[in-house]
Amino acid sequence: MRIAIIGLGLIGGSMGLALKRAEADFEVVGFARRPEVASRALELGAVNRTEGELHSAVKGADMVIIATPAMAMKGILAEIGGSLREGSIVTDTASTKAKVMGWMEESLPPSVSFIGGHPMAGKEATGIEAADGDLFQGCTYCLIAGRGATKEARDRVAGLVRQIGANPLFIEASEHDSLVAGISHLPILISVALVAATTKSPSWPTMARLAASGFRDLTRLASGDPRMSRDICLTNREPILHWIDDYIEELKALRRLVSEGGECGESEKLEEAFMRAREEREGWLRM
Q: How confident is the model at residue 263 (pLDDT cuts 50, 70, 90)?
């Protein structure tokens, strides 16, 4: 089975390494815009070979995996459409799905099956040097079947997801985008906002010396790929705005409790808010 991976950063490189470890009969062909990235992926063993042109990379491939930032995918889909063999499968790893599925409908021929994908895994490090063949172990891997996708295509992509150690979950694009806006995209913005608020303070040089694990953990996502974060916001605007508004309301409620904490009964309400959040998080961790 020949698999072409377009984009050899953290996710694309990790995908190649995971496929190589799957001990299946895969030939992995890689493509990256920067030749040095493609060469490094080859050195690390993430791909069997690389191609310098998109059409050459996808030619004859049974499956094409597009692992680039979301906004790059529209152009890529349009560029490769005429080079895909009949009956092939195209999938992706973008963090947003509705826009990508629409671009697929516009660009790919009806003889090709498209299965949108989003592995719920990652880390703040970026680039091929951060690639990890174990990145997908045990993670939920969202899959969205495109219009006209065959059952065989659905089964093959789900099977590949299992081979790299992940758990496939078929879901609708709109539901996916709404849910991940709350548990994946909003945390990025919270992390960025906290870094912005604290580092703007004249006291930041001293604060930086005091900042420890709590600050580090909560701001980890601010170290992520800025282009990827930008593209997430541009392609999932309305769901993200909904969750930002909900988060602001929760902050306002906490602000009121902190402000009135010295008044009769309000200190108990403040403690109850902390207890409720702890119980909810502990329940999630036990799932």
A: low
Asked whether residue 45 falls in the same domain as residue 148, the answer is yes
DSSP states along 264-284: TTHHHHHHHHHHHHHHHHHHH
Give the type of residue at 177.
D
Angle in degrees, 0-180, between the axes of helices 226-235 and 237-259, rounded to the nearest 10: 100
> What is the token pair recorded at 67?
């692992």
Same domain (yes/no): 153, 200: no
Do 84 and 217 belong together in one domain?
A: no
C-alpha of 276 from chain center: 29
Compute the distance between CA of residue 72 and CA of residue 231 in angstroms, rounded to an integer: 9
Question: CA–CA separation, 147 vs 144, rounded Å?
Answer: 10
What is the C-alpha separation between 2 and 37, in angstroms, rounded? 20
Check the CA dihedral 5-11-17-22 and report its sign.
negative
**Residue 10 near residue 122 (C-beta atoms within 8 A):** yes
Please compute the mean of the pLDDT values over residues 142-158 and round it to a whole number. Answer: 96
This prediction's pTM: 0.92
Residues in the chain: 287
The tokens of 142 are what? 């969202």
pLDDT in tens, 265-276: 668 889 999 999
Helix (H) or strand (E) run with residue 105 in it: helix 98-107
Tokens of 231: 């593209």
The residue range of the domain holding 146 is 2-171
Bridge partner list, 141: 119, 168
pLDDT, residue 186, reads: 98
- Whether residue 257 sits in one domain with residue 190: yes
As a whole number of angstroms, the distance between CA 171 and CA 60 comes to: 29
